[in-house]
Write a structure and sequence with these properties.
This protein is mainly alpha-helical. It has a domain at 68-147. It is built from 7 helices and 2 strands, in the order αααβααβαα. It has a two-stranded antiparallel ribbon. The protein is elongated, with a radius of gyration of 22 Å.
């Protein structure tokens, strides 16, 4: 065995035997950890914000690359719209179920992107432009372009 595999085995064994101790320490030092995390966030706020934005942008790119970068409404007057105006839509109009189960505010966009990726890009989502998505919501699940 190499040194690397020996080190990995050692660390795995160490984590397994000391997990209870680590959990107990975190419980005992809850306020201390809270202060540390708050201070770290305040010191590194701009870097952390950029890091989160980059992560969210990468997830969005993966999702939109899979579903396509154009509005899926067949009668949309601007299907090749700027990507900033594209949104993810629940084809079956059941987004309220997904949004409502976490908490009052629902899932964040990043959480939805992660869920889509983790579930293997299910066919229950589609890309719509902002106008078609809002119109569909206000028109009982049917894009207004389809009723004109």
């Amino acid at each position: 065995m190499t040194n690397r595999t020996n080190r990995i085995k050692y660390l795995q064994g160490y984590r397994a035997t000391h997990k209870k101790e680590m959990v107990a320490w975190r419980i005992r030092n809850k306020e201390r950890l809270k202060r540390y995390k708050k201070g770290y966030y305040e010191k590194n706020k701009s870097a952390l914000t950029l890091q989160q934005k980059g992560r969210r942008d990468n997830l969005k790119k993966l999702v939109f690359d899979h579903y396509g970068r154009r509005c899926n409404c067949p009668k949309c007057p601007t299907p090749d719209i700027d990507p900033l105006f594209l949104t993810i839509d629940h084809i079956n109009n059941d987004g309220y179920k997904e949004r409502g189960h976490k908490n009052r505010r629902g899932l964040s966009t990043t959480s939805i992107y992660l869920k889509i990726i983790r579930t293997g890009f299910p066919d229950t989502y589609q890309v719509l432009c902002w106008n078609c998505n809002c119109g569909k919501r206000l028109n009982n699940g049917i894009c207004p372009h389809l009723t004109l």
